[in-house]
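To whoever is on call:

I kicked off a structure prediction for a single chain this morning and the downstream step that reads the tokens threw a length-mismatch warning. I double-checked the sequence; it's 209 residues and nothing unusual in it as far as I can see. Pasting both halves so you can look.
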Amino acid sequence: MRNRGTLGALAGAALLMFAVTSTAFAVGQPTYSIDVTKTANPPTVPALGQSVVWTVTVHNTGSGNLQSVNPVDDLVGCTLSAPSGPGAPDTLASGDTWTYTCTVAGVLPDTTNNVTVDACHDNGGCNNESHDAADSASFTVILGPGSSENPVGSENPGGSGEPDVSQAPTDTFGTAGSPSDGAWLLVVALGVLLGSLVVMTPIRSKRRS
């Protein structure tokens, strides 16, 4: 009976130790996850487009550190910078955030920029198929307030198709209020006066004779 009791106590102690060890091991395992966001500056552009600065942020939301972070941007002309932030570019620690930027010229309204990020806790073999954490984000720029779908110089859908280019008004003789009107009136008045003198001179000479 004593042997059975001893064996039972030993078995119970072993099970307890196994449970405690398994729980401690599970609690000590790091987790890996990231949160990715993308923004644009400015978020709105005119109809003819303009340069936009795109920003990608990667936040480590897991408990483990990440030694490899790989952002892939699909917009033509967007070459992301090296990361900036705590530990960059070596280790993205738990709770830290890295930032990447690129500038693209001539971005038109309704342009969407997508980015996918893979991350691993080590530097070996981290890619789309093998990684510890992954996330993606996108941003679409829109036509800015006050911008026109038919800006000056673009084709006018309701017109002849010629560029709608405004020209400064030019001064034309005879136009009311034009700066040259006074000068022309002075010339005419002088002409009339001289003509009168020419006509009156012979008449006075005849009278004297």
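Update from on-call: the warning came from a stale cache, not from the record. Cleared it. Sanity check on the structure: Confidence is low (pLDDT under 50) at residues 20-26, 150-179.
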